[in-house]
Design goal:
It is a single chain. The protein is an alpha/beta fold. The protein has one domain: Rossmann fold (3-Layer(aba) Sandwich), CATH 3.40.50. The chain has five helices and nine strands. The protein has a seven-stranded mixed β-sheet, covered by helices on one side. The longest helix has 18 residues. It is globular. The protein starts with a strand and ends in a 12-residue tail after the last strand.
Amino acid sequence: MTRIIAGKARGARLDVPSSGTRPTSDRVRESLFGALESAEAIAGARVLDLYAGSGALGLEALSRGALSVDLVERGRPAAAIVRRNAATTSKAGGLAMARVHESAVHPFLLRAAGPYDLVFSDPPYDIEDAAMNADLLALAPLLSPDALVIVERAKRSTAPDFDGAGLSLFREKNYGDTTLWWAEPADAQPAAESQSR
């Protein structure tokens, strides 16, 4: 069972697609969101959750004070579950409704307007490196100047090509078989020095 961990919708239960997705574990979500709150990266943020699965990452951000959330999920059954979870979270926390886009990620990025301040990308473990890197390249123009991009992949996977997308990697953390990469626009003030977050 997956639940919203903290914020206005804390405890809200989220359904998880029965197949085709890989929900981020509670332990990883807790660690990730603790770090994001320490960086003051959630409150008021415009959030984009790519390969949303159940929508848990984007909806957690909404519960914790994000201004808006776009959830992108290609699979029709999964997108239906994301919509249901978005409604549950909105009702539980008295929050604005997250926008759910039933679309493949790359076409969505090519038509999206942005800007986004916080982006989660949790592609399927079997996605080809070239496709993942093409997503990052399409994402880069949609980012605000001090945006954060978090990519989740298997630890054994190839690291994303942030440099090729004009992004700069500044943190990498392993959680068992999972790795989270943190990046920002290459011309941004270094995250460790930024006082605006």
